């Protein structure tokens, strides 16, 4: 093999290893920061956030918002508060309602003023294209096909598949598509379009997205949720398969002020292995953070994929929550539940 070819291959391998190392360090420090918050160690959490952001020049919105809250309620470094506000604003994210209204002060009001002076850095043409695709996604649904009845389901499938092809073309045209390049709202649009296509078994983005995750360009947590959604639709009628999918992102539900956590002891080892491949925290660590998030009314937001169930009126929801709790108490179903502190009348 010619030396120049060997050099190019070696350079490619080193670049891939470097990117994966940075991605791993990013999520490791984010996990440490979130656990520190749960344990009341805001100063330590702030330090871990700074380490994480050194590993990734494009931190994700959810992490920046938590870091800003951590800084506000902890050390309150003016420099870091401004830095996080600017980074969020550049991606099209607003810090309005980021802090409890009871805690508004002159510092927070100054940050609100600063965000209005920041110019977005994302590609507005790309963001507009994604927004237009989401509008196309909604047209057949707004026309009355939310339940996908036979009379219109073909129109929805055609619309969804056309949008997915357009998404593939955008990746070819722009390369990396993330919050920094397409804005926070653009990535929101992207995720909806991908999830809508999963139900028709249309998912050509799998390898592209995984490559972007490992390179630190696409949020591993979003990818895990997409993969679990794909697994669910691929095995929708099979009751024998692992109901916790591949990464366990569907393990958390709230209903009638009760947090429901389904356990999968038989699949735990496999879940942990798959999560480790994406540099994600363990299921037990995610549970600890989700419980903290629930008990603190989402003051900090660690788990974006807690499903809120509304199955009827308040009384019907309470009754259903009690059914699930009874199943857990009787050991018929593996899991735990947590009643919000001000909602002890659920039982």
Structural overview:
With 347 residues, the protein is mainly alpha-helical. It contains 14 helices and four strands. It has helices at residues 3-38, 42-55, 61-73, 78-90, 106-115, 124-142, 153-174, 179-182, 184-198, 206-214, 220-234, 268-277, 283-295, 314-329, and strands at 252-255, 258-262, 307-308, 335-339. It has a four-stranded mixed sheet with strand order 3-1-2-4. A hairpin with a 2-residue loop joins strand 1 (252-255) and strand 2 (258-262). Helix 1 (3-38) packs across helix 13 (283-295), helix 6 (124-142) packs across helix 9 (184-198) and helix 9 (184-198) runs parallel beside helix 11. The longest helix is centred in the N-terminal third of the chain and has 36 residues, at 3-38. The radius of gyration is 22 Å and the shape is globular.
